[in-house]
Specification:
heterodimer; A: 333 residues; mainly alpha; two-stranded antiparallel sheet; 14 helices; 2 strands; 73% helix; B: 308 residues; alpha/beta; 6-stranded mixed sheet; 44% helix; 19% strand
Chain lengths: 333, 308
């Protein structure tokens, strides 16, 4: 076997499907999702019901949108640890604009989303202009956002009780008759929006270029620093949308939440086949990754698997998702 | 800035009556309704026993260092006893050790201090409080059916005590009630919402839900609302807060347990006075708790212990 290693590598080539290698990873993730759905449907009659599928989608929406945003950053071979607490800051700011200042809800929501973009922009500036590694820059932003959320709110939750219709942003149904909450529709809209940016625009092209080979991109005359700031800002926009949805779902801004959400978002991105070493990834993959996480936790809860074990299982899934990515890279190398 | 903070807290310092016992109380905060109620109870006791107290605390419960400064300042005034609610029970030990060595009795309140430095701790008996929640739940669902719990965490003393207090009471007294699931949401409103929804999906015939703190209870309320099961599932909560009060008034939540901050303040001062006078003080003082629902939420006694 061993002396043939080189030979077998060559022989494996015909097995490669005539599609882009990223697509294989996505197919694998999608297949895992289907397998999970089938497994839980058989295991419990309470799993595959319209109401449960809707609540899985709803519980995916906030983390899912965070994950979509952080996908951009991870494709550039960076990381954004601030998305969880920045999301909380956005929800607090939305509450300040709408409840405390009494601005019209749409304007308050817009400003809340822009708070996320601003946080992203600042992280981007720290990474691109100050040359601080993204891990550190966004770790700092995580703390800044957490602190600001607490300071601005006075450490107390702000309620939207007197803002009629605020909870409808996430929980209402914009399409009459279709019992799917808006949060789910917004999640899919953001996924399509992210997908278009990534695959059809110059921003997307530079996102991949920077992640594949930053130096080469720079040498070919691209203003890498400027694009990085733009990419982090876009990721921040997604964070802002997630923050508004969270506030709407809770009908309040809870300044103490958000820590740990960034890790769930990053896990969804990784399970979806986006490589932490940059240059590869898709929005569809991230959507599937986020869905795998929620289907897993939902299914295990319905089966009454103790919560401690649910966490262990998700950890194991992440290991295998990354291992699959490494195997694929070895094959294509 | 320090001067600005000191203004409101030390006003009584100058006019200290040398003939009265002096007991400074260092709390975890002073702005929140909860701490204002503790202060009220402490003042009641101070009047009753004719002692001098001061009540102070940092602005937020994260300011451990500021609380340390307040603690040191309080001890510098050479008090007869000290009331203390530790933000960080470890951090305070060296300073408290100094006070104990100087023979100043220390009364811990709200949350304990590690070790045997305080002569007593005046706090809520969380186990007993949750047992009362279990009784109320049983009564509301007719002593039979399926009940699930959303607990804030499985490692802290309050999380464990509230969970076990509820479970043990159910097991002992209500054989026809089945506990179908216990999940932990970290007190995170959103996670608790998703947890509670899934539990209802797994057990469509669920009769009751217990949420062990504010975030957990609100999570359950959100979940029941999102699932459109208002009135079908009986919710009993713990703690107070605007959303819980609203949910009880709306009828989505049946009722909740609230701690008794006035009692905490009162018992702290009383225990300090007893200790100074050389009386025996129990190791733990249960400061009591209340169950509130639509029927009594507007009573003065309950209004005094609710905090938004």
């Amino acid at each position: 076997m061993k002396p043939e290693t080189n030979g077998s590598k060559v022989e494996k080539k015909p097995f490669k499907l005539p599609i882009k290698s990223g697509a294989i990873q996505q197919l694998l993730a999608f297949a895992s999702l289907i397998v999970l759905l089938i497994f839980f449907s058989i295991a419990s009659p309470n799993f595959f019901q319209f109401s449960n599928i809707v609540s899985i989608l709803l519980s995916t929406s906030v983390i899912g949108i965070l994950a979509l945003g952080v996908t951009f950053v991870i494709i550039t071979a960076g990381i954004d640890l601030s998305v969880g607490t920045a999301m909380t800051l956005c929800s607090v700011m939305t509450a300040v604009f709408v409840v405390t200042w009494g601005l019209p809800t749409p304007l308050g929501v817009l400003l809340g989303i822009l708070t996320g973009a601003l946080a992203g922009c600042l992280s981007g500036l720290a990474v691109a202009k100050m040359k601080i590694p993204s891990f550190i820059a966004t770790l700092a932003m995580m703390m800044i956002a957490k602190g600001l959320a607490l300071v601005i709110s006075g450490t107390r939750p702000i309620y939207f009780s007197d803002t009629p219709g605020f909870s409808e942003i996430a929980l209402g149904s914009i399409i009459p008759g279709l019992k799917i909450p808006n949060a789910v529709l917004i999640f899919f809209f953001m996924a399509i929006f992210g997908s278009i940016i990534l695959s059809k625009t110059v921003i997307g092209r530079y996102t991949f270029a920077i992640g594949s080979n930053e130096e080469a991109t720079r040498l070919s005359g691209v203003n890498v620093d400027r694009w990085k700031v733009i990419i982090y800002t876009i990721a921040g926009l997604f964070t802002g949308v997630a923050g508004v949805l969270m506030a709407s779902r809770l009908n309040s801004a809870q300044p103490g939440l958000g820590m740990g959400y960034e890790l769930e978002a990053i896990a969804a991105v990784v399970i979806g086949g986006t490589s932490l070493s940059g240059g590869k990834g898709t929005m569809v993959g991230t959507v599937i990754g986020a869905l795998i996480m929620s289907v897993l936790t939902n299914g295990l809860r319905i089966l009454s698997v103790p919560q401690e074990w649910q966490t262990v299982v998700v950890g194991i899934v992440i290991i295998f998702a990354v291992y699959a990515d490494i195997l694929r890279r070895r094959q294509t190398a | 800035m320090l001067a600005a903070c000191g203004e409101e807290e030390t006003s009584s310092d100058e006019e200290r009556d040398p003939d009265k016992l002096y007991i400074p109380i260092v709390s975890k905060g002073f702005q929140h309704q909860f701490w204002q109620a503790v202060k009220q109870g402490a003042e009641q006791a101070a009047e009753e026993f004719d002692v001098e107290i001061t009540f102070e605390g940092p602005e937020t419960e994260a300011q451990v260092d500021k609380q340390m400064d307040m603690l040191k300042a309080a001890l510098d005034k050479d008090p007869d006893a000290l009331g203390f609610a530790a933000l960080d029970s470890q951090a305070a030990i060296p300073v408290l050790q100094g006070a104990a060595d100087a023979g100043i009795p220390i009364v811990a309140f709200d949350s304990g201090v590690d070790g045997d430095l305080p002569i007593t701790t005046a706090a809520t008996d969380n186990k007993a409080a949750s047992a009362l929640a279990a009784d109320k739940m049983a009564e509301l669902i007719g002593e039979e059916g399926k009940v699930a719990l959303i607990v804030h965490d499985q490692t802290s003393v309050t999380g464990v005590d509230r969970r076990d207090g509820f479970l043990e009471q159910m097991e002992e007294k209500y054989p026809n009630i089945e506990i179908v699931d216990v999940q932990y949401g970290g007190g995170d409103h959103l996670k608790s919402t998703d947890l509670a929804k899934t539990i209802m999906q797994a057990h469509p015939d669920l009769d009751g839900f217990f949420g062990s703190n504010e975030g957990s209870a609100i999570g359950v309320v959100n979940a029941v609302r999102e699932a459109g099961k208002e009135g079908e599932v009986t919710i009993v909560g713990f703690d107070s807060g605007k959303q819980q009060i609203d949910a009880i008034k709306d009828g989505v939540m049946a009722g909740a347990i609230t701690q008794n901050p006035i009692g905490i303040g009162y018992e702290t001062v009383k225990a300090a006075v007893d200790a100074i006078n050389g009386k025996d003080v129990p190791e733990v003082i249960d400061t009591g708790f209340f169950y509130y629902d639509q029927s009594n939420i507007d009573d003065d006694e309950i209004q005094a212990v609710l905090y938004e």
